[in-house]
Amino acid sequence: MADVGPIERLRTGIGGFDQVALGGLPAGRSTFVGGTTGSGKTLFAVEFLARGILLFGEPGVFITFEETAQDIRHNYASLGFPIAQWEEAGAHRVSVNSLSAVFTRFADGGLVRHEMHRIDKALTALVWLFTIDPRDGLVIIPLPFLNYPSVPASQVRVSSGITDLDQMCGGGLYKDAIVLLAGPSGAGKTLTALKFIAAGLAAGEPCLSFAFDEGREQLRRSANGWGIDLRGAEESGLLRVECDYPEVASVEDHFLRIRRAIEDLAPGRLVIDTLSALERIASPRALLDFVIAVVAVARQHGITALLTSMPAAPLTPEIRPLIAGELAGLTDVAITLSYYELAGEIQRAIAIIQTRGSAHDPRVRRATIDGDGMHIREPIPGITSVLPGAAALTFPYRSADSPGSRGPQPDG
User: Which part of the chain is CATH 3.40.50.300?
Assistant: First the structure.
């Protein structure tokens, strides 16, 4: 049999779609786009044609059985598609919207529904997160992680904002490190995030922070308590803080906001506090895709990123360990905060689970918080567990002989 070679692909130009579709749609063939009412089928069809004109100089034909030509022209003018100006040219691309309107004209409706169901069922395995944006049209999530330019790994160390934590991490964080900090409420996640931002501001780095658990005034009050002037930093233009409940938008829209803010501000540091708040609006798989996309954008721009999370308890054991393991593979540094009981008092503990490409202190240490911030104290001898509900994330521990797992062991 002759080798026919790979199927030629036609780039759609739709943001992120061509990456997940392995280059685009099969050229010279028909492609079926299915979905429920309002899911974006018509937008996909129109944008397929519009991007063909704008990006590739390929005129198109749009055939619709549901909307008038005038409605199509009007509805998509807001996306910058001057459809009326394009209508005089010939066609290389064709969109038909929608087949369901055509099939209703057939007498045997049961057969049509059966065939449409078969097609839809076959396509359910191909699930992509996407959002419909007023400016960019369809945006597929995760957009950049499949094919973003190779960026050299930084050898520069920067401060986390907590001197003792820098020492535990082998001398600080790499400039392009992705750090995941997990811990229960009150353990010090937001404080660590604020100190991380303060260190960036002190170094003259633009900083970007997304807070999903606290309002702006509450965050400023907390920062003021530790001598950090968020208001002044925002007014100077060096800091941008976004405070919103997760429920105000979809997880895809939150990603788009983060990506745009990164493009606008060009920050040296990024904070997302906390990922766990997004669990209220996203499935574990969707949240993982969100993190993959954010991490990819941060790496592409050489950003030092700090992502915070609650411990593993909120999700079922069948789901969370898998997701936690995936997150561990995406991040460079994993830090866990927890509580434990000693002589009738609640104490805090901190541990470095992993630091990719760097030595670190693997010992569990006592942590205290006062008016100056967090202080990391002596190693805790013999600790084997933490309080119920405050379990650390189930990150895979490195073995004793793994690269980066051994190194300088600071004295207590």
Answer: 9-141, 157-379
Residue corresponding to tokens 């600790």: 383
Asked if the model's pLDDT at residue 250 lies above 90, the reply is: no
* Token code pair at residue 279: 């669990």
DSSP lists the bridge partners of residue 93 as: 60
Q: Report the C-alpha gap between 173 and 156 in whole angstroms.
A: 8
Contact in structure between 93 and 61 (CB atoms under 8 Å)? yes
Q: For tokens 């459809």, what's the residue?
A: 83
Short-list 12, 33, 14, 32, CA closest to 24: 12
Give the domain 157-379 fold: Rossmann fold (3.40.50)
Q: Which amino acid is at 71?
A: D
Q: How far is CA 89 from CA 27, 60, 86, in A?
A: 21, 8, 6
| Tokens found for residue 110 | 């049961």
Residue 127 burial (10 A CB sphere; 0-12, 13-18, 19+): exposed
pLDDT of amino acid 176: 94
**CA angle in degrees (0–180, nearest 5) for 14-58-22:** 40
CATH class of 9-141: alpha beta
Strands 269-273 and 207-211: parallel
Write the pLDDT tens digit of every residue in 43-85.
888 888 888 888 888 888 877 767 788 888 888 887 788 888 7
Q: What would the DSSP string read from start to end of 270-328?
A: EEEE-GGGGGGTS-HHHHHHHHHHHHHHHHHTT-EEEEEE--STTS-TTTHHHHHHHHH
Q: What's the CA gap between 128 and 34, in Å, rounded?
A: 13
pTM of the model: 0.68
Contact 14, 138 (CB under 8 A): yes
Cβ atoms 52, 7 nearer than 8 A: no
Question: To which residue do tokens 């130009």 refer?
Answer: 13
Q: Please give the single-letter amino acid code of residue 17.
A: F
Q: If residue 114 lies in a helix (H) or strand (E), which one and from where to where?
A: helix 109-123
37-46 pLDDT per residue, tens = 777 888 888 8
CA separation for the pair 173, 360 (Å, rounded): 11
